[in-house]
Amino acid sequence: MASNESYLDKKVISIGTVCELTGLSERRIRYYEERKLIFPERTNRGIRKYSFSDVERLMDIANKREEGIQTAEIRKEYIKQKKYNERTMREKVIRGQLNAYFHTRE
Question: Which of 1, 21, 29, 100 is at 20 to 30 A from 61, Cα to Cα?
Fold first, then answer.
């Protein structure tokens, strides 16, 4: 596990437990995986493992589907959010580097 990875992102939960937590069927969860809305890890034996973040995302997906939003639209929204988060993180890193540079020159 990467040192900056949160426990929320560690893939340790079985699909059966995810079903219990979310109320979604295994079939529905696998469908969302096929639609590239969630990305479980696979063990050497092919068993899917999910994170707490995946569980939260599945609940978000289920709520959006109940509102009538199509999976393609949900995926577009997630991609847009990921790009925004990456851009924001890059900007924070650059600001930090600039601050460090100018503070060491004083």
Answer: 1
Structural domain spans, the chain: 7-104
Phi, psi of 60 (to 5 degrees): -65, -45
Q: Fold for domain 7-104?
A: Multidrug-efflux Transporter Regulator; Chain: A; Domain 2 (1.10.1660)
pTM above 0.85, yes or no: no
Sign of the CA dihedral running 65, 71, 72, 76: positive
pLDDT tens-place string over residues 84-101: 889 888 888 888 888 887
CB–CB of 73/79 below 8 Å? no
Lowest mean pLDDT among 4-8, 21-25, 42-46, 70-74: 4-8
What sign does the CA torsion over 19, 38, 36, 46 have? Answer: negative
Continuous H helices in 40-70: 52-66
DSSP type of residue 49: E
